[in-house]
Amino acid sequence: MPAFSFLSSWKASLLTRRRYFFLLGSLTTLVLGSISGILLLRPFSKDSPNQEEDEKRRKNRLKKFCVDIPKVELHSHLNGSIRNATLKDLLSDLSVPIPPTLQNPDSEESTRTLSECFEIFPLIHLAVSTTSSLRRVVQETLIDFESDNVIYLELRTTPRTLDEGKVGKREYVDIVLSEMKKWVEDKDTKLIPRLIISIDRSKGVKEARENMGIASSLFKMGHDYVVGVDLGGNPTKGSFKEFKGLLEQVRTEGMKVTVHAGEVDDLEEVNDIVAFRPDRLGHFLCVDGGVWEKMEREGGDIPIEVCPTSNVMTLGLKGLGEHPILERLVKEGYPVSINTDDKGVFNTKQSLELYKVAETLGLNEYTVSGLVWGAVDLVFEGNRRTRARVARDVMKGIKSRLDKIEAGG
Ligand SMILES: CNc1ncnc2c1ncn2[C@@H]1O[C@H](COP(=O)(O)O)[C@@H](O)[C@H]1O
């Protein structure tokens, strides 16, 4: 074999060997790289589904806890609580076309601005304009709250005439009360229903006087179910000042008073309401530092009825995280109750409102319990024994659910 051919064959074999080593090296790098990559990534790829699972489990447990525990609901409008199916049913019975805002109320994305809400209420009133439809709405509302484990419910409503004027306002209230009474007598139920009689501020002082007259006469008769009065209705209509005297009057008779405040930007009115010092405030959204200072100076905290979904929708917020006062109230331990407002209109329920608050503020089962327990103290119920019963049942229910969680259930 000639020298050069040996050389060339050696070079060739060197080349082959280099290629071989290069290939081997590359392969080793690839294999080791892959192994170390797998090892490095393993904790993430293994833990990430677990983390997701844990998070899902935590959320489900919290959601179930919010459903299971006994609760109190203090701000709920009767006609706004109508089931969407019932509303559609009643409207179709009357051959009234269903408007687009009602087409898909069950959608998660459904939103309702303040003005849209106040367009829906006349439609609901049109649908619920007979004795039988009113009875149906009361019954279904009690069923819905009971199935969500609400054990004490203050339902509020504005007296109206029914059956084309044949049934008067006082009879309207009597129908609501008789349905509540029947509920308690007929059923082995834990739900205690109570009534707050409302003034709709858009309807003027004359109507308001009639409503307060009905409330006052029932209260003087010692009716157990009538626990207070409310000023509500479209906040862009009328003013608190017009109704202040009437509210003052029923208050001196011993009735509890709650007032919708600060749903729209009107600081002068909010200051007037705070100066009046109702027993509770509804919503209380558009307020400034001066209002809080005034409240502090003139007697301290007035309990607030928060209605999370309603507040988000009527203020046009992106989410509950943008709620103007919720976080501060809850974190500072301010006296608050969490409510539905209009469970039909806002497509919600008490447990869901509670869960949304918990998720937004990072509360767990213990802090949620504190929130629910705190609301028990704010009920308008005048009978001490009934109040004690509600407190005992809420505490018992919370304790048994927390015990279960601690036992790993
Ligand atoms: C959105 N936030 C709110 N702010 C103010 N008032 C409200 C309300 N939601 C409901 N109502 C009041 O409750 C009535 C419906 O129930 P009732 O017929 O009384 O049972 C509405 O017409 C309005 O006056």
UniProtKB/TrEMBL annotation:
Alphabetized PANTHER family for the sequence: ADENOSINE DEAMINASE, ADENOSINE DEAMINASE-LIKE PROTEIN
Adenosine deaminase domain span: 70-377
GO molecular function, one term: metal ion binding
Name of the molecule in the record: Adenosine deaminase domain-containing protein
Cofactor(s) this protein requires: Zn(2+)
Catalytic activity: N(6)-methyl-AMP + H2O + H(+) = IMP + methylamine
Keyword Transmembrane in annotation: yes
Keyword list, A-Z: Hydrolase, Membrane, Metal-binding, Nucleotide metabolism, Purine salvage, Transmembrane, Transmembrane helix, Zinc
